[in-house]
Amino acid sequence: MPAYLDHASTTPLHPVARQALLVALDEGWADPARLYREGRHARRLLDAARETVAGVLGARPDEISFTASGATAATLALLGTAAARRRAGDAVMVSAVEHSSVLHAARHHEQAGGRVVEVGVDRLGRVDPAAFTPVPGTAVASLQHANHEVGTLQPVAEVAERLHNAGVPLHTDAAVTVGHIPVDLGALGADLLTASAHKYGGPAGVGILVVRTGTRWRDPRPGAGPDAAAGGFPDVPSVVAAAAALAARATEIAEEAPRLAGHVAELRRRLPSLIDDVELLGDPAVAPTVGHISAFSCLYVEGEALLDGLDRAGIAVSSGSSCTSDVLTPSHVLVAMGALTHGNLRVSFGRDSTQADLDALLDVLPGVVRSVRASLGAPHLGA
User: Fold this and answer.
1) What does the UniProt keyword field contain (predicted)?
2) Which residues, 6+ apart, have CB-to-CB distance to 296 below 8 Å?
3) 185: closest CA among 152, 218, 160?
4) Contacts of 378 (CB under 8 A, 6+ apart)
């Protein structure tokens, strides 16, 4: 039976989102910036979506904007704050395990003459809050809410407090957590938050950008207007569906989270007895994790070969750097953690995941690993 276990990359459209999308395609197709009846109706749908998202995230509706993707939202958050706070300084702080969109934005800032301060992590992928002490002239800092490859939660609230004492705003990339665990902007203390709808059951092509009132930010794109964070003519039906999915997920998290965490715990418990020389990444018992993600690396194998073998058996997981896996480059996250980068797999569960999916993976994976090791002439192992 096929098993889809890559929900951290994207997850199927939530049934509530599908229903909302179909209705909004008929009712929200017009340009919400127009003053005629159809435009006003589309605007009401867009405003209602903002209110829904704001209610779930503990924000104000006027703090919510929708972008073309979560990556776009993160880029705008970082570069927009750096641009608005240019007089405060030219330094941007990021952790070494941020999503590639954040790291690329930081490099762009550096190429334009700014400075980048990168903060390392421990072997669990977690930053030390004390390491986020801003250097003089820091304009903005970015720390993900949870890591997209190993699931480790970051001490965002502690870092936010430290930064605020120095007058520096914090952006947190919450694409991994929004829709999977309760996320409250006030409790986190972040000044900007970004998320991606397709990771929690909304449609692809909708990112969420939250800029708290009082945070200096301006759209860094040329010719941007006062509402340019919305990306021009917004896809109102998709935005409506994204908001509906988020509201639905907010009611499901409490019941679903223990089940998915149980799958992760069982996977981590059974893997070492099924496969020799496997390194489990992160540790939920030591550092809290988002709960539905587990990653591990196998010695003497290549991630691409594992993906191919599992795919032939109808099992979908991810490998390599999860945000650039199309080229299967070594994961910058694992490099920063000092972990084994070859033979890496990330398994992520979702609302549709079952025990049968986990069993299918564990039934097939040992044989795939043995086959790949044999093809590479690796030493004989007991797996």
Assistant:
1) Iron, Iron-sulfur, Lyase, Metal-binding, Pyridoxal phosphate, Transferase
2) 268, 271, 278, 279, 280, 281, 344, 345
3) 160
4) 299, 300, 301
Annotated catalytic residue 298: no
Q: How far apart are CA 298 and CA 43, in angstroms?
A: 51
In the chain, where the domains are located: 3-9+254-375, 15-248
Helix (H, G, I), strand (E, B) or coil at 62: helix
| Local structure of residue 53 (DSSP, 8 states) | H
Show the beta-strand stretches assigned E in the chain.
3-4, 64-67, 91-95, 115-119, 138-142, 170-173, 192-196, 207-211, 278-281, 293-298, 315-316, 344-348
What does the CA dihedral 31, 33, 36, 42 come to, rounded to 10 degrees?
50
Among 323, 336, 369, 372, which one carries the catalytic annotation? 323
Tens place of pLDDT per residue across the chain (383 aa): 689 999 999 999 999 999 999 999 999 999 999 999 999 999 999 999 999 999 999 999 999 999 999 999 999 999 999 999 999 999 999 999 999 999 999 999 999 999 999 999 999 999 999 999 999 999 999 999 999 999 999 999 999 999 999 999 999 999 999 999 999 999 999 999 999 999 999 999 999 999 999 999 998 887 665 444 445 788 999 999 999 999 999 999 999 999 999 999 999 999 999 999 999 999 888 889 999 999 999 988 888 899 999 999 999 999 864 444 445 567 899 899 988 888 899 999 999 999 999 999 999 999 999 999 998 776 655 44
Which numeric CATH code is attached to 3-9+254-375? 3.90.1150.10
For 69, the token pair is 């993707």
Q: What is the CATH number of domain 15-248?
A: 3.40.640.10
| Pairing of the two strands 344-348 and 293-298 | antiparallel
Q: Which residue has the tokens 């599992």?
A: 310
Q: What are the distances in angstroms from CA 257 to CA 23, 157, 199, 263?
A: 30, 22, 15, 10
**Stated pTM of the model:** 0.93
